[in-house]
């Protein structure tokens, strides 16, 4: 077996319209397909990232909350690669998203920051672009 890449990440949200707007309008992900599954009272929204990866956004009646942030067992956070973390941080903040201060990875020397989706899921912006990882 040879894994090629991550195909998708599945996220369960508590308020489907709010999360759909966050991922499509604020983060700018494109809708591939949107389906309502009546038997499960659940939406499934497939969203495309520029590299071909996908996010599946689900809604279910009364999903339990995440136990803690970000150190709960399981998936710790979802990280998005960006060319310029400072510019992306300003973009999110201009749209009312609270973003942590930019930090520098002690091993790669790349810049990164965290923010959260409407349900508090930790999301990261990780700079892979032209900047050398040194904070301005």
If you had to describe this structure to a student in words, what would you say it looks like?
With 136 residues, this protein is an alpha/beta fold. The protein has two domains: 1-62, 2,3-Dihydroxybiphenyl 1,2-Dioxygenase, domain 1, CATH 3.10.180.10; 70-136, 2,3-Dihydroxybiphenyl 1,2-Dioxygenase, domain 1. It has two helices and eight strands. The protein has helices at residues 16-26, 85-94; strands at residues 8-13, 30-37, 42-48, 54-59, 78-82, 103-104, 111-116, 122-127. The strands form two sheets. The protein has a four-stranded mixed β-sheet, covered by helices on one side. Strand 7 (111-116) and strand 8 form a beta hairpin. The protein is globular. The N and C termini lie far apart (43 Å). The model is unreliable at 131-136 (pLDDT under 50).
Query: In total, how many domains does the architecture comprise?
Result: 2
Order of helices and strands: EHEEEEHEEE
Tell me which CATH architecture of the largest domain applies here: Roll
- Structural category: alpha/beta
Distance between the termini: 43 Å
| Count of extended strands | 8
* Number of contiguous helices: 2
Biggest beta sheet attributes: 4 strands, mixed
Low-confidence stretches: 131-136
Instruction: Specify the helix fraction band.
Output: 10-25%
- CATH classification class of the largest domain: Alpha Beta
Strand order of the largest sheet: 1-4-3-2
Average the pLDDT over all residues and give the rounded result.
89
What is the CATH homologous superfamily assignment of the largest domain? 2,3-Dihydroxybiphenyl 1,2-Dioxygenase, domain 1
Give the overall shape: globular
Q: Please compute the radius of gyration using only Cα atoms.
A: 16 Å
CATH domain fold name of the largest domain? 2,3-Dihydroxybiphenyl 1,2-Dioxygenase, domain 1
User: Proportion of β residues?
Assistant: 25-35%
